[in-house]
């Protein structure tokens, strides 16, 4: 990218943001950049500077920004009304598509965010089992609820299974309801389940935790433990759903949970998420189907919103076409291999972790199989590396590159050139 030019309009927006928004942001990406437009794999800031976008809205825009088919579907629905609070055709068709796609899904309940989906998935597991505790993995991201924020990214590494809240404002009592385990450590899970098995309602797990893949047999082992004990296995597929494969992580890894949560891609860039799973568990959302004291009350003004559902369906129609996932994995693997080679050639204490659709560099050469391994990565080095990437017009989050179907060969070539520069900067101490 040429030297970034900032217009007075963008400077004014940044200054207003710093006044009217805590920390000057919506709470997401902490940059003094205002993104005004996106098309395909690129976005433009309010001053007109262009970026190759590996944030893709934190994951939803897998087919690229403003895809003409998604835009057309949205425009058609917008002209016909935007919300009704009664079933709508797109929402029903989207639920049917999710039931077809996800092995665990017999029924679907829509909400607006992944946070809500995870919150209700844990709640429905409790209602179904009639027990209170949830086992969650250290470093696992399940949204911003009181439960999700237990040991999400703890600075203090406690002894397992002690839960450490990542936020102020969470009642102390919630800690006692969450059992924390190390990801990828089946022996630890077995032993914690044995200790708490009469209190545990569910195990919630990202089948692919942040950038860390499951060790061989880990997900299968969780399935076995849940089968033996009757504990509900919840896959958080907010990231992996429709990304790892059309049928999500459960298709990719060949392990079927009891329920899963979905978000990001299924709303096509609009607020929509879902809990999907076995009918005998999902029936707890139906107060006519279970005793009153086992039923969930769950209502949402915008749940199953027709515009979001239309965007999700149009996105999924594109993903369903032959070759879509091959292309996504090919682009991602070219990028990932390029970055791996660059880090190796630069002899930096670093490695690339993740899979083709979502990966990044971690600045440690020790193996990374869980949050504690990831925590050892040199964050300051990562920030310097990302700083060079941004200066070269590459937009990404602090810890992830999300690849889309819209990233083309020219984007790949430019990104690899920027990584070369960033690695050189780290090696020479100029970054
Ligand atoms: C695995 C996972 N679960 C849940 C969430 C929360 O989703 P949302 O940001 O829509 O609340 C996220 C968000 O990134 C996520 O990555």
Given this structure, which CATH class of the largest domain is correct?
Alpha Beta
Secondary-structure class: alpha/beta
Quick one: CATH superfamily of the largest domain? Type I PLP-dependent aspartate aminotransferase-like (Major domain)
Name the helix and strand elements from N-terminus to C-terminus, one letter apiece: HEEEHHEHEHEHEHEHEEHHHEEHHEEH
As a percent range, the share of helical residues equals: 25-40%
Question: How far is the N terminus from the C terminus?
Answer: 16 Å
**DSSP strand (E) fraction?**
5-15%
Stated plainly, the CATH topology of the largest domain is called Aspartate Aminotransferase, domain 2
**What characteristic shape results from the CA principal axes?**
globular
Any idea what the radius of gyration is?
22 Å
Count of the domains: 2
DSSP summary: helix tally: 14
Count of β-strands = 14
* CATH architecture descriptor name of the largest domain: 3-Layer(aba) Sandwich
Question: Could you describe the 3D structure shown?
Answer:
Helix 6 packs parallel to helix 7 (218-229). The chain has 431 residues and is α/β, with parallel strands linked by helices. The protein contains 14 helices and 14 strands. The strands form three sheets. It has a seven-stranded mixed sheet with strand order 4-10-9-8-7-5-6, with helices on both faces. A four-stranded mixed sheet has the order 1-2-3-13. Strands 11-12-14 form a three-stranded antiparallel sheet, covered by helices on one side. The chain has two domains: 8-66 and 323-428, Aspartate Aminotransferase, domain 1, CATH 3.90.1150; 68-319, Aspartate Aminotransferase, domain 2 (3-Layer(aba) Sandwich). A hairpin with a 4-residue loop joins strand 2 and strand 3 (50-53). The longest helix is centred in the C-terminal third of the chain and has 22 residues, at 324-345. It binds pyridoxal-5'-phosphate (PLP). Pyridoxal-5'-phosphate binds at residues 58, 113-115, 118, 141-143, 206, 236, 238-239, 263, 273.
């Amino acid at each position: 990218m040429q030297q970034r030019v900032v217009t007075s309009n963008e400077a004014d927006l940044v200054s207003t943001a710093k006044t009217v928004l805590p920390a000057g942001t919506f709470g997401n990406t902490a940059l003094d950049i205002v993104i005004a437009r996106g098309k395909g794999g690129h976005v433009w800031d309010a001053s007109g500077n262009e970026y190759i976008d590996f944030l893709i809205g934190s994951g939803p825009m897998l087919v690229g920004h403003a895809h003409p088919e998604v835009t057309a579907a949205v425009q058609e629905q917008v002209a016909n009304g935007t919300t009704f609070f009664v079933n709508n055709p797109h929402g029903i068709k989207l639920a049917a598509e999710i039931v077809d796609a996800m092995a665990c899904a017999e029924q679907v309940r829509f909400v607006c965010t992944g946070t809500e989906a995870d919150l209700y998935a844990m709640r429905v597991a409790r209602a179904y089992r009639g027990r209170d505790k949830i086992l969650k993995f250290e470093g696992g991201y399940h949204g911003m609820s009181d439960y999700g924020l237990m040991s999400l990214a703890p600075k203090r590494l406690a002894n397992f299974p002690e839960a450490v809240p990542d936020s102020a404002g969470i009642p102390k009592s919630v800690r006692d309801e969450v059992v924390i385990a190390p990801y990828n450590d089946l022996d630890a899970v077995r032993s914690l389940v044995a200790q708490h098995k009469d209190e545990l309602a569910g195990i919630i797990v990202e089948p692919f935790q942040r950038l860390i893949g499951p060790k061989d047999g880990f997900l299968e082992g969780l399935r076995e433990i849940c089968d033996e004990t009757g504990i509900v296995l919840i896959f958080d597929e907010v990231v992996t759903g429709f990304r790892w494969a059309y049928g999500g992580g459960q298709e990719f890894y060949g392990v079927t949970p009891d329920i899963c949560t979905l978000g990001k891609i299924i709303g096509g860039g609009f607020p929509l998420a879902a809990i999907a799973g076995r009918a005998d568990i999902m029936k707890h959302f139906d107060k006519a189907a279970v005793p009153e004291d086992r039923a969930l009350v769950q209502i949402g003004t915008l749940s199953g919103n027709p515009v979001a559902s239309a965007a999700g369906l149009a996105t999924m129609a594109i993903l369903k076409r032959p070759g879509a996932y091959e292309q996504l994995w090919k682009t991602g693997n070219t990028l990932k291999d390029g970055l791996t080679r660059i880090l190796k050639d630069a002899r930096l204490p670093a490695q690339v972790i993740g899979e083709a659709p979502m990966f990044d560099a971690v600045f440690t050469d020790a193996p990374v199989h869980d949050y504690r391994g990831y925590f050892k990565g040199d964050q300051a080095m990562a920030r310097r590396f990302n700083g060079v990437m941004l200066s070269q017009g590459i937009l990404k989050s602090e810890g992830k590159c999300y690849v889309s179907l819209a990233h083309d060969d020219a984007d790949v070539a430019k990104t690899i050139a920027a990584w070369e520069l960033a690695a050189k900067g780290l090696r020479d101490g100029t970054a």
